[in-house]
Amino acid sequence: MFKAPTIKDQAALLRQSSPEAPVRCTVAVQAEGDGPPLFFVSGFGGALLPFHSLRKSLGKQQPLYVLDSNAVAASTEKRLTLADIAARMIVDLRNIQPLGPYYLAGFSLGGYIIYEIAQQLQRAGEPVGMLALLDSPAPGYPRRLPAPIRALLHVKHAWSLTSGDMLKYLGERVHLLRKYFVNVAPELAFAKHRDAAATALARRIRRSAVATYDAWSAYAPAPYPGRVMLIRASEQKLPPGVIDDDPAMGWGRLAKLGVHVVDLKCAHARMLHVENSAALAKILSAGLSPEGASRSPSGASGQSGTYRGMRRSLWHKSA
């Protein structure tokens, strides 16, 4: 879709493709440009098309590559760890850019993958110029009140709704309880469309996404020797009983040089949507500048370094 955006181009590309060609996980959203390449990992399911609008907002001089987790998971039958996924991505990443500094970003589930990529690059002696996590909380964050108290808060909230909304809300809560007793992966966007979900391609994407999700669920990140840029979705609504009181979303104890927090005015699921691409590009461009993430962009999407409108320090040092 990026390399051959027209039907004519796609037909020509299919004629040239060799079935013996090795599978690579690097998708060149934009290969041209004089700037340092930005390597991005998407969230659950490995969506690629949202990066079309981000490419346009970043400009013609900014190379942009997506590291496709589905390509990694589909290339092997063995059970993958997140370190395996990161190591495989690094091989293809270094074919594009042999030496650092590397500029990395990951959204949601992709935040853990890009964090592990940064760890492995640092251990190999390669500098990381930017490590940006998009609304990707550290393990164990946010905190939750004890289950009985949360249940009471849910009932109290449901009682304030109309009868129809009350039943819908309580049904959703019961459905979500499964993830506390068994590791249940989220649904992919096409799961609601029966004909699409039944295709061989959709089943293959689902298997790859679940394999990546299982690796993500088991990941325990080690302390990172550098600095993290955390881009928060400032309009995310959390359910009752969930305590979101740390602007650094739990990364302060892991990032040894601090966490640079920037708010993006949107909900979590819409961070890569077209209406937010300009604001997101402005934030990322600041991290790609020679000064790096030590300087936050002004006017990107409200107050940089704030947490729900309250002024906080831009840097949340680890203990």
Write up what this structure looks like.
The structure is a single chain. This protein is α/β, with parallel strands linked by helices and 319 residues long. 37% of the residues lie in helices and 14% in strands. The protein has eleven helices and eleven strands. The chain has helices at 7-16, 51-58, 69-74, 82-96, 109-123, 147-159, 163-176, 178-181, 194-197, 200-217, 277-288, and strands at residues 26-30, 38-41, 64-67, 102-107, 128-134, 143-144, 228-233, 242-243, 259-264, 306-307, 310-311. The strands form three sheets. Strands 1-3-2-4-5-7-9 form a seven-stranded mixed β-sheet, sandwiched between helices. A two-stranded antiparallel ribbon has the order 6-8. A two-stranded antiparallel sheet has the order 10-11. A hairpin with a 2-residue loop joins strand 10 (306-307) and strand 11. Helix 4 crosses helix 5 (109-123) and helix 6 (147-159) runs antiparallel to helix 7 (163-176). It starts with 6 loop residues before the first helix and ends in an 8-residue tail after the last strand. The relative contact order is 0.14.
